[in-house]
Amino acid sequence: MSVVIGLGVLLVIVILYMIFRVGTLVSVMRGPEKPGGTANQINALLLLLFMLVGLGGFFWYSYAHYKRFIIPVASEHGIITDHLFWITMVVCVAASSVIFAVMFWITFRYQYKEGRKAKFLVDNHVLELIWTGIPAVVMALLIFKGLETWNAITDPATKEAEVIEVVAQQFFWTVRYPGKDKQLGKFDFRLIDATNEFGLNLADDPNTYDDFKAPELHLPKGREVLLKIRAKDVLHSVYLPHFRVKMDAVPGMSTHFKFIPTKSTADMRKETNNPNFNYELACAEICGKGHFSMRFLVVVDEPAEYEAWKSQQESWLKQNPDYRKYVPEKYKEMADIKSGITPGGVAVN
Amino acid sequence: MATADIHIHPVTHHEEEHEHEHHEGNFWTTYIFSQDHKTIAKQFLITGMFWALLGGTMSVIFRLQLGFPEASLEFLRPVIGGWITPEGKLDTEFYLSLVTMHGTIMVFFVLTAGLSGTFSNFLIPLQVGARDMASGFMNMLSYWFFFLSSVVMFASLFLSTGPASGGWTIYPPLSALPQAIEGSGLGMTLWLISMALFIVSTLLGGVNYVTTIINLRTQGMSFTKMPLTIWAFFFTAIIGLLSFPVLFGAALLLIFDRSMGTSFFLSDIYIAGEALSNVGGSPILFQHLFWFLGHPEVYIVLLPALGITSEIIATNSRKPIFGYKAMVGSMLFIAILSFIVWAHHMFVTGMNPFLGSIFTILTLIIAVPSAVKIFNYVTTLWGGNLRFTPAMLFSIGLVSFFLTGGITGLFLGNSAVDIQLHDTYFVVAHFHLVMGSASFFGMIAGVYHWFPKMFGRMMSSKLGYVHFWFTFVGVYMVFFPMHYIGIAGFPRRYYSWTNFESFGGFQDLNMLVSISAIITLSAQFIFLFNFIYSIFRGKLAPANPWDSTTLEWTTPRFPKHGNWVGEIPTVYRWAYDYSKPGAKDDFIPQTVPFSETPESNLPHENEHVKLEMGNGGAIVVEPKGH
């Protein structure tokens, strides 16, 4: 490390010294300056070289290292957005490479020559209309394709969607499943404490009784999932790179994102030839000093495995029986049954 | 004795009057509290350069962390002290402070004040033919508010809790709650105060620019004869006047939320073991307000650079700028559209998806005038007789950044594609090229081009070439690899990615980026040396070193306050009569009447000759009634 820094400092000093020498010499030696000296030719050549090496390097790296910068996709809409990404890529690379090449060819071709007179070209309406029209049409096509996709992604989820709540806070995630009643119970941020992390409103909403907290985000393969997202303290952002999912978590406002996972963790391990592969949830909105450490494990199961996993989870209320005191008398029996405190539905107390 | 006194007094009095006429004063009024637009421009430039070096150094420090995560940064302890942990690592929170301050400094202090402040001030009076700004006093205030704002921001770097650290976009609740991050304590307060002062400075400057351009153009300088630089400064100032007050409003509401218990942006927050009483606010509202400035700000930064390079490319191609009207038209169109695309920064904030659709459409429309500008630049170069001065090289560099950086906007502006790329390094690559580097290159190009007018001396062009090639290649090596890192999904503002399997690898590219950043920053010292050395020891500049047509080159080598000795010259033609067929030289200055150039006049220009010759020999420039 210090070697690199040392080299950097040395480079600066050497450069500075050379500058001084060159500068002094130049100011002594230089007569009246002509516009097109050797410097002009060298710069024209360097610009051309830059273009050739730059474009060459770009195409080479992109081709040779393709596998490194592509993340495999594991959701239905992700395939579509990736497709759109690549369409845009083709348009952009084609357009910019051509313009790039033409521009630096021009700077080489039309470098200063004594006695040559530049063209007095003020405008050309046909040309201008053409190159206003072409980008406009291309944009229109990209917009059309993009909006179609965007609308499909942001359409409301179906009734059958598996609803899961993701809650962000500095600097970790908590995940809540609705339990057997398939309804997430209500919460209130004023009820949050060290144990009641979700702020479950046990007093008012029986739907809370069977909700459970999961140590990992389990998703069923091939089924629609609706993430309901919220934050407790500051902004965060739910980012699932392999599923092409990103949605901010906002305190005071519920956000959501629906998608269909298409590959189980096992599938992906096979595809990537990596027996240790895991899906991950990351935070994508600056949230404080631990921003870079908000990792949460994501597991995609085959539907049957998923159901089996769910049925093994203990409800939050069963794990925290102290909070049974907040359940109103009239609901106590229901709470015991739903939360699994009384197996088989026989009430104690 | 008495006679002597009587004798001396009238003489001194006379001298004072004399001095007042020529606006010459003592050291303080000439160099510090000057009302001369040229001096104020230099003040903006030098302050901007100071900030650029500081902002650049900050980026190198956090790049050290990203490129060499294992390295010990112990050697930085003498400079940043306690922010180096006992293990010799950069403090994670200070990392965010560096990122935040780098963004704030570069966007506002360097590319807004340093660019607009320098060149709008310097060029508007010189190029429209005015003795000074409409209000020299307000102009002076504009600089001193900026200076004050700089002092406050600089002071915040030395706080024990650190400067603001919630990102340059200062999204609440992070920026509103000191419990959430230390930098949101006093550091954030100073950030807000500094920014409020900065906005005052920008508004004072902007009012002056607009007024001067509308009212103080010399005889003959109609709007259609203005150089594109002036058009660019004009649109920039108007955008600034309309958008900065919105940031002021947002900052004010944030101040209320922070210190007076209001809930504009805060709601339902549980932090540090307690539930806050704020309800009903919306963090999204802040983002709307912020980006209502934030997006136009991109063009506040970019348009002056585009104006400057239009001028430099035309001059050094020895050709008229291609499609002058289309250039003005696309700048106008960009200026208008810049106000209605802001929410493309917010596609995944939970904003109504319908808004996302609208902003996708509007955003991609803005690509059209931008493309037109690129095509016009390239066509201007085509068929020219190109002189690669350092200014010209940096302008070509700008066009290339504007292209490579701008085109990736097609990905990010399309909401469906943005879902994956949002807040990754792809975004970082995009805006650093299209807005950061392009504008920075415009600014540097401007310094090289107008240095002879600013200081009466020439900068060394050889050093300029070295500076250009290190910087041009360096910038690409810094920002181009970030596209790959971004496509691979790496989120921005991460201290390290080692916690994630998904963001593994690319240590090689990250190292390359960091090394390139160090080299690029080092190369700026070549420029700094050239700049300072040439002010004092550079070769004396000829009157019109670049054979340019515009008015500023008709002033003396060291123009005094008032710019022209004697009458202000009259303007007869547009600024782009380069290589006109039939003309003796390859340029005809704006001050040469058509009646003196019968050999090169176009048919419609001969009409002007009649107007010039009419009216009993007195030269009229425009039809009566103008």
List keywords for this structure.
heterodimer, A: 349 residues, alpha+beta, Immunoglobulin-like, 2 domains, 5-stranded mixed beta sheet, 9 helices, 10 strands, B: 626 residues, mainly alpha, Cytochrome C Oxidase, Chain A, two-stranded antiparallel sheet, 62% helix, disordered N terminus
What does this structure look like?
Chain A has 349 residues and is an alpha+beta fold. Chain A folds into two domains: 37-113 and 122-154, no CATH class; 162-345, Cupredoxins -  blue copper proteins (Immunoglobulin-like), CATH 2.60.40. Chain A is 45% helix and 15% strand. Chain A contains nine helices and ten strands. In chain A, the strands form two sheets. In chain A, strands 3-2-1-5-8 form a five-stranded mixed β-sheet, with no helix packed on it. In chain A, a hairpin with a 4-residue loop joins strand 6 (236-240) and strand 7. In chain A, helix 4 (76-109) packs antiparallel against helix 5 (125-154). Chain B has 626 residues and is mainly α. Chain B has a single domain, classed as Cytochrome C Oxidase, Chain A, CATH 1.20.210. Chain B has 19 helices and two strands. Chain B has helices at residues 2-21, 27-32, 37-67, 77-80, 92-128, 136-156, 186-215, 228-259, 283-317, 324-337, 353-365, 367-381, 390-407, 409-412, 415-421, 425-455, 461-487, 507-537, 603-613; strands at residues 270-271, 274-275. A two-stranded antiparallel ribbon of chain B has the order 1-2. The longest helix of chain B is centred in the N-terminal third of the chain and has 37 residues, at 92-128. The radius of gyration of chain B is 26 Å and the shape is globular. The N and C termini of chain B lie far apart (62 Å). The chains are: A alpha+beta (349), B mainly alpha (626). Chains A and B meet through helix 1, helix 2, helix 4, helix 5 and strand 7 of A and helix 5, strand 1, helix 9, helix 10 and helix 11 of B.
